[in-house]
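Quick one:
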Amino acid sequence: MGETIETDAGGIWVERRGEGPDVLLIAGLSDPAEAWQAQLDGLADRYRLTAYDNRGTGRTPLPAGPLSVPGMADDAAAVLRALEIPAAHVVGFSGGSRIAQELALNHPRLVRSLVLVSTWARPDAYSHSMMGFWHWMAERAPNERAMLEAFLLWIYTPRAHNDGTVDRVIEETMAFPHPQSVEAFQRQLAPFRTHDTLDRLSEITAPTLVMAGELDIATPPRLGRAVAERIPGARFEVLPGEAHQPFQEVPDAFNARVATFWQEVQIRG
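Output:
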């Protein structure tokens, strides 16, 4: 059961599960903490996991004024400090991976290790146009279902579209009692569309694993590879046959891989 915690940045909704070394899960565009359910369930026997709703998502309110990626990273830092977590293994997905990059750059002592999933550092022309399309699609789609059906074409594998997984995700999203408004979606998307960390990634000192889906059309592997090449000592891995959201489509394999990485980090001290 989650709760709203008071931080220096205001109220933020968090979900916590398990016991052990601390893990912070940072979700991507529009995703509430529940996006990490398979990790909250599957890793809680070994780790203490914290997931939270980003600004304008789920139960964390949308503030006045524009959002920024560094500002959302400050929110992540505020969550860790409010929960008295001195340092955590940090996992960031998609837009959340941009937040995780800034967290590692601006609050390095809070980051024990870094896993960046479906990530990028500098938006290229394709990324810029894609996210521009998402911006106006959110307000011009005929209804919520049509918006989700279109948006999720970039997110899940053809396998998930054909086996009913995407239909189930759509039903669950539409039944979620804390839907994201069009305004919140667009305001959260805006900083992800333009934010650039490429020239600063060499400053990240945390052990880093970068994971990309072979079939990801939203953040193709070439973008993740560019991130890994800039972070000293980072590992880069492509997940065969997977797309943008592997931690949901193949959670057992994903959980096993990140747990192995964290164990290696702990052994190295």
